[in-house]
Description:
Rossmann fold; 8 helices
Amino acid sequence: MKILKIITVLCLSMAAITVGAQRSFEQKVWNVAPPYDTGDTADVAKMQVFLPNEKMATGRAVIICPGGGYEGLAMKNEGTDWAPFFNNMGIAAIVLKYRMPHRVTMAPISDARQALTLVRLNAKAWHINPNNVGIMGFSAGGHLASIVSTRSANAERPDFQILFYPVITMQPGFTHQGSHDNLLGKEAKKKDERDYSSDMQVTRATPRAFIALTDDDRVVQPANGVNYYIELYRHDVPASLHVYPAGEHGFGMLTSFKYHAEMLLDLKAWLQSF
Length: 274
């Protein structure tokens, strides 16, 4: 079993290397002053775009939102390190550096919505199908991705969502307190805590989801992702929940994660299912 896992990891790594012909570039999210001023002029929203070889392009794209508790971003492990995996599948990967909210709740949400709009506006030039653009998020980035998935419409709504150990609820006792305080403030109103709890915003129009987490996560309670899956199921939204026995929080693309190979195979299989 261990030998099979090593072979699988090597095959996935070698496959990623073959996509060296990918094209990457950076683009600002806003060409004008962004809405919802956070007071931090140095914090600029931008996207790192990784396009697959045109001959391999499937037309699918995914916008990646790294985590960091809404006070920083794990841009490598939960961002750019994922580009080869997606490009090897013919999927465009767009890593989003969204603004930190500084308790201006709508700032990162508006950045993610604008990123979705921009990808669709550039669909022809980037060989992307505007009806096949998803969003991916890790931890607090998972909260952002799920909020955009449940509280957006038209060009601002993704077609699918991929969530890794996501913060889902803003309800006291279950939320990740740092993410809650940075997004809503320590004295948040009960209404805001409900409105920005993604599990409470699910409808039949919510896009399909892949959810991955570990049973031993002590940073973001696994109940966040599990409860979100239950609400998706209750509303007849196709969803796939993967709970790995161990790995704690923040494994992202780390090969040291014991179930790294299995996780990549699970995600690949899900992406190929629709």
